[in-house]
Specification:
single chain, alpha/beta, Purple Acid Phosphatase, chain A, domain 2, five-stranded mixed β-sheet, 8 helices, 11 strands, 41% helix, globular
């Protein structure tokens, strides 16, 4: 009886110890699982780097690398198009010979970007089951007359710019439709700050007062390709792709004064605020004319390239480019790279 009494006395302590042991075991299992996931992601990233190093060197990627990155779930390839500024003129003498730009150069660069992206998609199809395309039209396709200086330096009016930009985008979509071998094509549209019809930037009515919004609506109605169009009603639009949410916007809502830490600090702060209502796999921006890749976001570069303003503020030189993404249903964003325009 004494033994039974002692066992009864200690049973609550034993149950508590068992509970703590079970909780510790669960935490250990979660930690091990997360470590394995991180190791798999690292191995996947290193294998992809080897794959693209071989492709960029004009070599055939090793078979063991291709096997390691075997196709799994379906994937979409994104082409980020923004900041073309089709009516802007850049003279080499004004930017120390770093760039030259006019309407003819813009057209040649637009065609080159689409051609290079399609080749990159073909290469990526060796390791990702890319069946869908998402084309992001991110705004500032025109320079507009938002500053007095632009009235003097642009080669055409905002309406003429919109007509040219619409033709170049239509040609790009037609090429993608004919040559891309995609099952579906989605076109996601945001307006920029340069395409506005008002002197000052509006917030609630920025889409209603944008030459670019009119251009998107006309393209949607007249484009001969079969595509699903998503035209933002406001500054942002959230796209559901492969089961992942991607938030898209031009980027002019982010306040950045060129401070220490660069773009990453203000963008991460903004994403943190927006994530209180919508958490996303990725945030996409343009506006800053500077390719900035990150695990949580990407800033698209520009087609217009280095200009007088960039030189005046001492901005880092980057060649004109746009951006390619691959979003996989199982792995999330697995590719993020520049698509050079020249």
């Amino acid at each position: 009886m004494k033994l039974l009494d002692k066992a009864a006395q200690h049973s609550p302590q034993l149950r508590e110890l068992e509970r703590k042991l079970a909780a510790t075991t669960d935490k250990l299992n979660v930690a091990v699982s997360r470590q394995r996931e991180a190791e798999n992601l690292l191995a996947d990233s290193l294998a992809r780097e080897q794959f693209w190093n071989a492709v960029n060197a004009g070599q055939r990627p090793p078979r063991d690398i291709v096997r390691k990155l075997s196709k799994k779930g379906t994937a979409s390839s994104w082409l980020l198009l923004s900041d073309w500024h089709v009516g802007q003129v850049i003279k080499p003498s004004k930017v120390n010979g770093l760039n030259k730009f006019d309407a003819n150069v813009c057209e040649a660069r637009a065609k080159e970007v689409v051609s290079r992206w399609l080749r990159l998609v073909d290469a990526s199809r060796q390791i990702s089951n890319i069946r869908h395309a998402v084309i992001w039209l991110g705004g500032d396709f025109i320079s507009g007359h938002i500053h007095d200086e632009l009235i003097q330096t642009n080669s055409m009016s905002p309406v003429q710019e919109a007509v040219l930009a619409q033709r170049l985008i239509r040609d790009a979509l037609h090429t993608i439709s004919k040559q891309g071998k995609f099952e579906t094509i989605r076109v996601v549209c945001n307006v920029g700050n340069h395409g506005r019809t008002t002197k000052k930037m509006q917030v609630a009515t920025q889409v209603e007062n944008s030459y670019e919004a009119m251009m998107y609506w006309l393209l949607k109605e007249s484009s001969p390709i079969l595509a699903y169009w998503q035209i933002a009603d406001g500054g942002q639009i959230i796209v559901d792709d492969q089961g992942h949410k991607v938030r898209c916007q031009h980027g002019h809502a982010i306040k950045y004064g060129g401070g220490i830490g660069g773009l990453e600090i203000p963008i991460k702060k903004a994403i943190h605020r927006w994530s209180t209502s919508h958490r996303t796999l990725l945030d996409i921006f343009g506006h800053f004319h500077s390719y900035t890749p990150n695990a949580r976001f990407v800033v698209n570069s520009s087609l217009v390239g280095y200009d007088d303003y960039a030189l005046s503020i001492g901005a880092e030189y980057q060649p004109p480019s746009q951006t390619m993404l691959v979003i996989d249903r199982e792995r999330g964003c697995v590719e993020m790279k520049q698509v050079y325009a020249e």
